[in-house]
Each structure stands twice: as structure tokens, then as C-alpha cells.
Amino acid sequence: MKQYYDNRELSWLKFNERVLEEAVDKNVPLCERLMFAAIFQSNLDEFFMIRVGSLYDRTLVDADVRENKTDMTCREQLDAIFKRVAELNPMRDKAYSRIMSELEGHGVEQVDFKALSKDEESFLKAYFTAEILPLISPQVIDKRHPFPFLKNKEIYAAAQLESKSSSVTIGLVPASGAFSRIIFLPTGNKRRFMLVEELILHYMPLIFENYKILDKSLMRITRNADINMEEALYDHDVDLREVMSELLKKRKKLSPVRMELSRKLGSAAVDYLCEKLELKHEQIFHLKSPLDLSFVYPLRGRLEESLPTLFFGRADPQPSREVDKDMPMIPQIQKRDIILSYPFESIKPFLRLLHEAANDPSVVSIKITLYRVASDSKVVDALIAAAENGKDVLVLVELRARFDEENNIGWSKRLEHAGCSVIYGPDNLKVHSKLLLITRKTGGGKIEYISQIGTGNYNEKTSALYTDLCLMTANREIGSDALMVFNALSTNTLAENTSKLLVAPLCLQNRIIEMIDGEIAAAERGEEAFIGLKMNSLTDKILIDKLVEASQKGVKIRMVIRGICCLVAGIKGYTENIEITSIVGRYLEHSRIYIFGTPERMKLYISSADFMTRNTLRRVEVAAPIYDTHVRKRIMHIFGILTRDNIKARVMLPDSSYVHVRSEEEPVDSQSTFIREAYENASAAASGKGRKVKPTLVQRIKSSLRKR
Q: Cys-Cys with 685: which of 111, 477, 600, 690 at CB 3.0–4.6 Å?
């Protein structure tokens, strides 16, 4: 193993630890800290369902296969994961306990039976008897009764019951159903609550009144959700929607990979559960905080209005000063490229572009790739309107967008019913690009293109939560490349010879290597050489090795990587010219920016692709060059602010750990800076001080003639 590699799975756990750090940061509003604890837990759920599930599957197929950077077997990775998660869980418990303790000062309290008054206990018993008991389905499990199927991520109340025989007898009650999970006590400010699973667990003696309960605990199972689709998708004669529907059913029934308990159960009961669920003891985790923190989302809705100071201050996406709200979008884009920065700026100009295109007589076709969309998508509404208006609408719907498959299946049917041509992309390759092409035919028969390339999904909801960039351009060469991409997707082939766009899997990784080589050559000539990268993850070994080579040649490399990073920075002789920071803040950092070269010769791109092998070689991704001088300055300004963040940024150390950036310079919280700038720019634009657009040569000539 080379010392500048880090393991992908362990690197991800370091990222989730950074999320958990936000839950204990005193500078984060209290209820937002609670949200970060919930995000940590939901992140970990998905990690077990996908990454741990995948590793588990591989141990069954080839136990000796090794990871290509740290040379760890799947079993070694699983052992390291279980050990690290066992260390992180107490940190989560401590964070949750601190938050709830502080919330008590604001009248918000999660109560247990030890802290109840007699009236409150009477209320809860009556509530349980009337509202819960008639709706639950308890089971007794022993050698005469089959072990039931336990649903993924559902909470169960489990009790070991005294048995006359030597066999283990378990009482099991599902703790979810047609009742609310949060039970508010009808006293005081009505912010004191109990979770329904704790109520059910407390009254287990009433449920199993003919048994003596030896011990009891809440229990939660996490199941493998990593479905292998390759075999099904090789069959070209099947309907992909039907395949995905069947696979979604299977996902709910895959093998358990983790069991969480809220209390200690007797060893006999634990052994019995492990045997039935085919789990090892190292896959059992004990928690003192609630097993599922998703209840904090409805709790947030109850508290947000009455306790606003416990949340982030309001920050609505602002109108972009780049856009004239009184002028149609297409003429504006034809004058100059426009960049939108979400969530600081609103997605509305992009939605306006789509709706205008749907109603523009000159527009003959609209082509778009959809990976994730909102459940009530205005993007899809515009595409349907365009089809109904007689436009040729081609929509690539990625049915394999993990955990959005069901939503996408529904949208694909609606789009098809409206008259859109719906395709699903090449075999065995997800289409992750964010690409839109609007084709117009003017009165003179001239063909014009309006292209949009983004770093994030066409989803109005996430555009208010994720940081992303949206480029809209009338550049003809970019439009021609976009057409080539769509033609390839429509014919089940891949784009190979694009001129301006970088398009994975055939012409992205190799061109990035060429640009890194260009900086290496510059360094060898004694010139200043620079590479700047912002993305979610870095795992591609080929690109990692090339970046290490560049560092060794003297190229200065600055990276902002939110999540997984398998390259370790700052190691003498290898990566001492590389600096890596991770920013975890109010919004999810999601934009991708590639910078190659110093300002005089800089090549600048925005992209949908991280530097992960799955993005560079196993997906259809698009990176777009930035040519407009104003847009280039703006993106470089964004990158500069990100690299100066000394509030929410953590810097990677040579041992692959992360610490908060320490700086004596003026405090910079990058996301807060962008919020402030968006408000200032919107205010300036509203007062008539927005960016003045230089007239074109033709406009200047016409103006001169009018003056004469």
C-alpha cells in the first residue's frame, strides 16, 4: 500500500464524522444541531444499506478480492467499518443527549416514565390503551412459531419471555403503524413528548400479560439494498420499468447487515436473533439515543414558528442580477452566457427558460437528461407542455437513480403519455449528466442552440438545499456537442469525439489527464502551474496517481472535496504540494469545478462528475468549458471564497484526519458570504444598479444611425 492512499469506506466515515461535528458545534443553532444528528444517522443507514451491503455480497462471491488502493480485503474493510461505527455511535449518543438537555431550557423535552407526573402517566396509559393497543400486531416467536420478516429500518419492541422449555421465546411488536410516532403531552406548552416506541416498550407487560418478561429492548434492522441489476439489464427484450419495479420489491427483502438495540438483551436472546437474522455479534450496535432520528423533521415543523432563534435565519434563493426578469430568457442567453449559483440564487430563470421554450414557435425540439426530479416537478410540467404544443421532446429518464427509482418510473409514464419520447440510456451505464438542449429554427431557416449544463439535478427542492451551478449558453459548438451526446444516447451508443464538452465515459478522464499533463509540462519549464478542483468525492486511482505525479513535479494543487477522498494530502515526497479541505455547513456542497492553469492560460469547467471511477468510466457525465469572461470571473470568485473558508472548512492532515482550519485572517464562512452577496446583488439589481450589459456591435451601429 502506498502511503498517500486512504480507504474509500473509512474516508466516508470520516466525512460523516464531520457531519456529526456540526451537531456539537455551539455556533450552530440548537435545532439545526439536532438536524445534523439526524442527517448523520440517515447517512449511516444508507452507508450500511449500500456500501456495507455491497462488501458483504462480495465476501460471498470472492472473499480474497482486494481493494485497489489500500489492498484491504472485503472482510478487512467490514471489520474496520464495524470497529469505527462502534466508536462513532457513542459520539452520536453524547451529541443527542447534549442537544436535548439544552432544548429543555426552551421547554422542549423528550420525557421518559421516570420524569412523569401521575396525571401524565395516566394520560399515556389511557392513550396507549385507546390509540395504540388496538392497532398493534404482537407475535410470540419460539421453536413452534416461524421467525417473521423484519422490515428494513422499522423499529420493533422485543422482549425475552420466560419459557418453560430450554428454548428462547421472544415477544415482538412492530412499533410503527397507523399512529403518530411523536406523542405530545397535553400539559404546559405542549412541547414535552414521548416517542411511541418507548410507550409500547414500557407497556410490553400489558401486551404479553400471560408471560413474565425477562428483559426488553427496541430493535431496528438495516438490510442490504445494493441490488445487482446487471443480469436483468443485459436482456434487451424486457421493459426496463418492469425490471426496476421487480428489483424495488426485492430491495425490501435483502439480507440484514446491521442490528441496533436500545437496551441490553440477555445473551441467549441476542444469540437467537443473530442466528435467525444471520448476523455476527460485531454487527450489533447499542445506542442510548433513539434508533431512528427521522422524527426530528416533523418536530422541526412544530418548533420552527414558535422558536425561530433555534434555527438558521431565513435565507431565500434570490433573483439573479444576471437575469432581467422583464425580458425573455432566450434573447438574454443569446447576448451572453448566464450562470446561476444555487441555492443562493433562484432556479426560476431556468424554469422560465423551459416554459418559454415550450411556447416558443421557433423551438422545434427540447432534449434533456433527468436523474432526480422533485415529486411535483415543474421541470416535467414544462416538458409535458412542450410536447402538447407539438415540440419534439426527448427525455432520458435514469430509472436507476438510487432510491429515486420509483419516482422516476412514475414520471417516465407521465412523460410518455403526454407524447414525449422517453429513453433510458446505454446498457450498464447510468446517465448522470445534467444536460439540456433547446433547438430553434428561425424564420431564415437558421438553426440555433440554447444549451444548459449543470452540476446538480433538475430538482426545484434540492436547488434550495444544495450548492450547484447552472450554465446557460448559446455557444454553437457547445450546442453541437450536446446534440452529439443526445444522438448517442438515443442510439444506445457513446459520444466519442466531442469538441468542447468533456463527456464520460470515453472523453472525460483522458482529457483531464491531458490537462494535468499540461500543468506538469509547465512546471518542468519552470513556469507557475496550478490545478484547482471542487467536487464531492475523489476515488479514481488513475487520476489520484496523476495528481500525485503533478505534485511531485511542483504543480500547486488546491482541492475542496466535501466527502470521500482517497488521496492523502501533505505527505513529503508525494503530496506536499496538495492541499485538501472539506466544507460541511448549512447547505450540502454539491457543485463541481475544474481549474487547470494560471489565469493567463486557464481552462475552466463546471461538471456533473466527481473524480470517482463510477463517474469517469461507468456513467455518462458532462463537463462544460466556461468561455464568458464575466462567468469565468464569477466562478473563480466562488472558488476563491471556498478556499478562504476558515469557519466551516476542515483541512486534511498527512495522517488523513481532518481538523478545522485555523487562521488569523478575517473569518470567512463561505456559504454565509454567498448568501450575503446574493441578497446584496438582488438589492442592487432592484434599485437599478445591476450589471450593465455591453451592447453588441450591431446594436451600437443601429444606435448610432438612430442618433443621426
A: 690
Q: Which residues pair with residue 567 across a beta bridge?
A: 5
Let me know: does 487 contact 477? Beta carbons within 8 Å. no
Angle made by CA atoms 93, 95, 97, in degrees to the nearest 5:
65
| Best CA proximity match to 401, nearest among 377, 375, 427, 370 | 370
Cell reading at 467: 450548492
Q: Where are the alpha helices (DSSP H) in 657-696?
A: 670-686
Phi, psi of 498 (to 5 degrees): -65, 150
Question: Model pTM?
Answer: 0.91
Distance CA 10, CA 8 (A): 6
Strands 192-195 and 578-583, by their bridges, are unpaired
Backbone angles phi, psi at 516, to 5 degrees: -65, -40
What residues are annotated to the active site?
Answer: 432
Q: β-pairing, 619-625 with 502-504? A: antiparallel
DSSP letters along 526-589, please?
T---EEEEEES-B--HHHHHHHHHHHHTT-EEEEEE-S-B-B----TTTTTTEEEEEE-SSSEE
Query: If you average pLDDT over residues 699-705, what whole number do you get?
Result: 43
**Rounded-to-integer distance, Cα 347 and Cα 356, Å:** 14
What the block records as the C-alpha cell of 169 is 421465546
Element (H, E) at 122: helix 118-127
Q: What average pLDDT does the structure give for the chain? A: 91
pLDDT tens digits for range 37-57? 999 999 999 999 999 998 988
SS3 content of the chain, % helix, strand, coil (to 5): 40, 20, 35
CA distances from 93 to 86, 254, 271 (A): 11, 28, 25
Specify the DSSP element, H or E, that contains 631.
Answer: helix 629-644
Return the C-alpha cell found at 488.
448517442
